[in-house]
């Protein structure tokens, strides 16, 4: 990572981020929480895609997220390539109370890995963590840990909670595919800022050309960088630095 | 990529040679006249242009109180006062239409063939002046005497509800005069048509009454009359206020005073009074103007349905909505789940949709539509559109309008793949490029993707982009003038914001510029202007002006041209996306197959479906054409060419079939497996027969040999095995297969190289009740299937066996032998199955049953195994068996086998025959059911090298996937190609090879003769199996008549370890009796050769039995 002096005005760059996932898993709500720190019970369904921006302050730089929030209904899937084109980051969201949504998320990951710009930073996000009992909520901590940390798992899925997707299941999948992994709740705000911060950190500096990151050109090495960043600085970022 | 381009090409290859006449492809480029006609007048799909004639419409003087200046075309005095319009008068089955705008099609065009666009409407909608009268709304037609025209008709319409016993006994009938211009003949023909139509129209009057009674225009005019009379109390009670949407309860959006709603209503009342209402409305220039300034709230719904044409649909079937809801009440679907998710989030800012009432209406309309059009179901954005409609319309009105939207105005927008949406985005982009090149370059330069912004505009008709009141104004015009309005508005938005947009260098800014523009639509467009009039012009008004003046050149024709230009690319895109995703989503099972194989299966699967859909379409069209030709009276033709059904089946078009029925499955298999190709392709002459044997393809293919029901592909055969496979793969019991089913099925068959699982799989195929047992019937069926599968060779030559195996196979005559050998293996298989079969009821002296079965089998083998000639040592094994068995009390006496077998070589005498019959009965006795279990089956298979090999390699490799495209190769394959011999090789086989080779050489000339002979053998094998079945049935019948006391023979108990002996006995005994039957079956001339071969076969069989012994130990 760069060691630019913190005194100088921090360099700012744009990152195009796309949200994908099954209908009604809470993509728009995540964005709403991140951008406006707000939560609405009945949000209008996203038609096509919604666009929002939000800044995220890192110690060394400022990332301006250009967030493309896509429609989740299955038939809108064929529009998705239009939105994830040139995206540098993707949030693939599933609902921890709906196993089918994880399957769908896996499809999206596969799609992105094959079709999106190489080196795209993908985060797998299990939303609606508030619906799980306490046991599940803890697991967010180990999600933050380095990808290698496989041993510590605290799944108490048998409880009364609505959780249907074990943290371990999703986590091991995420590790396998080298994805960032979080469980969030757009309703309570749990982990939401962390997701975006982690993504901001994972975006390699090389791909941040200017205020508007033009994807596609320099991304061949990106993947490597992303991994390095992940392992190196990882979740050590203390700040909830996002301006939310 | 060998995906869709492939598919598309294939499809085109198929269509074009087969379709000298206008087919779907041609139709697609240039819509048929019927389509254009329907679009121009917004008529239902059942209508077609039957008659047309140039005419002049004269509106009787009282209509002309409001002088419509511009369009008075002929001010000749003698025709008196009134407005005159010259245009075309059209007659369809149920409508009389008149328009001053040039027709969008050539008069000379025939009904079905495509024609070029002419005129200005381009099928866009009822833009011109004129009317669209349902014939049932015409009360009377009189012929007038006129000097200037041959024919003049005075038409009186039902004005208002045509209720004979209504209170307004004589509704002021609206009168219009039409003068026909044309030759006498033309005019007479037209009048005749009209007469017929009117007669038919009487039936519709009831519908008309139902529909018209609840229109607001009716209410408006009735209440108006009442007021004037001042005695309306009674009448007023009768006329409830019609349902004009949620706005009635929750108020209409916007400030009614600001919208000058009252003024608009007044103007409309005047207009309606003069020009008819709902059914009988005449479009004069004022009509268009009134729509442009925005419709009054309460009338909005009605005018929308009139201009969009949904009114005509409702007229045809007024109860469809309630009936649909009733019919499907309580049922669930994916669409309903999706609808449920969105109900609370559709126009939530409108109070009506925070209430149960509003949400209930929305739910019902969306649900009803999802049932009537299941291929669309529910698409997000429909909730928003319908919610908007419901503010101004009743539920049924919204329901029909939604149909018109989805089917016609926004084709493909809400379909499964949303291809219409994507296509129109491309069209929009290209229009921007054309009309605003600088802006376009800017967008390209900064990589701003326009469709990201514009897609929601189109998909939800600007409803959630603009403030509602303005979106509704756009809709007012949209329903009248058609889809081009969406483009015009979109272009105008960009044009007006052009400068700001040129400053935007990223999507974010771009979007926010437009967002803030929409938010300020009600502000003055020229706030700083000196001129107060100019200052009063709102941004929205400016938008409308720019849209319809500056972009007046954007016509429906432009849109259509652009659409057809981009269609290919858009569809191909979607298809490759769909293919990619669907292959990826096939689940873990699919991983057993290679990506290539999956791609192949995908293409093959959809090609079959696509081609079948095409063929069905073509055949249907042909049938229609025939029907049309047959019936001289054009009035009886109801089905025309639907412009929307074009290219059904293409993946990207969404509502394509994704399920394969059994016939399609057969066709699918025929392209993959040789055994699935029929042995007796129905020749064209056969097809010409009025009663085609293939009744499942009911549509006649007479006189069109090129249009075989199987298209250009190979005709598939039909076999029970295929049906079983189909049923097995059809895990959802849907009576059809999805791609997922097919892939999972193939994964099970081809995915594993494990012989055991292959055997189990096969067994399960025949285990109907999946209780782990296959009964007698099943065994026979399995053997049939084995023969069926092997009749073209067991493995493909392409899949050459391992070198070591090839080495063993030295002589060329060997290869045919394998097939023959296979046959014998199957024979042995049946026998063994019966030997080892378990009785069904252990209580029923299980062992006895086994033995009886065994006994029967020996006889049974006469029919079944006649191929085997065995002259010697019939008794020894049996005897040995009995003597060996200590449990048998009187072995030799009690065994019915001995007499039978010993005597069988000679002509059996009466008594013996009886005995034999009994014995046979025992084996085949349905009262002594038997079954084999999987372990038994496995054992029997493994006992035979040939079968073992078949299950190891042959079966799965008989399905050819990506590695070797079969189509070309297979077309040459017929029964005489025996080159695809099984690659099973073993010592036994090679031994036999020698023997048979000799025999063959001795009897038939080498080469063709041998082949022919072998063909016979194979097909005989199949017949043998059939024969077995027949005998089985016969015996069963016999049994019914015969008493069962003859079966008291006690037999010794057989231990498991006794099986080998038993087997040997069976072998010999069965073999012994076979000769005579062989000759019967093979026919006399071949008998000699057959006999010789049988010998060898028998040897192979006993060979195999030896192996069984080994296996057992």
UniProtKB/TrEMBL annotation, chain A:
Please give the residue ranges the record annotates as the region Disordered: 133-164
SUPFAM superfamilies in UniProt: P-loop containing nucleoside triphosphate hydrolases
**Pfam families annotated for this entry?**
Ras (PF00071)
Sorted alphabetically, which keywords does the UniProt record give?
Nucleotide-binding
Show the GO MF annotations.
GTP binding; GTPase activity
Q: Which InterPro entries match?
A: P-loop_NTPase, Small_GTP-bd, Small_GTPase
The UniProt entry, under NCBIfam families, shows:
small_GTP
Report the protein name in the record.
Ras family-domain-containing protein
Species assigned in the record = Lophiotrema nucula
UniProtKB/TrEMBL annotation, chain B:
Which branch of life, at top level?
Eukaryota
A molecular function annotated in GO for this UniProt entry is: GTPase activator activity
Record-linked Gene3D superfamilies = 1.10.10.2750, EF-hand (1.10.238.10), putative rabgap domain of human tbc1 domain family member 14 like domains (1.10.8.270), Ypt/Rab-GAP domain of gyp1p, domain 3 (1.10.472.80)
Q: Where is the composition biased (Polar residues)?
A: 688-706, 797-809
Which residues fall in a compositionally biased region of kind Basic and acidic residues? 1036-1048, 1104-1113
Pfam families cross-referenced by the UniProt entry: RabGAP-TBC
Q: Where is this region: Disordered?
A: 59-82, 680-713, 795-820, 866-912, 1036-1113
Q: Which InterPro entries match?
A: EF-hand-dom_pair (IPR011992), Rab-GAP-TBC_dom (IPR000195), Rab-GAP_TBC_sf (IPR035969), Rab_GAP_TBC_domain (IPR050302)
Ranges where the Rab-GAP TBC domain occurs: 294-482
Coiled coil location: none
Q: What is this protein called?
A: GTPase-activating protein-like protein GYP2
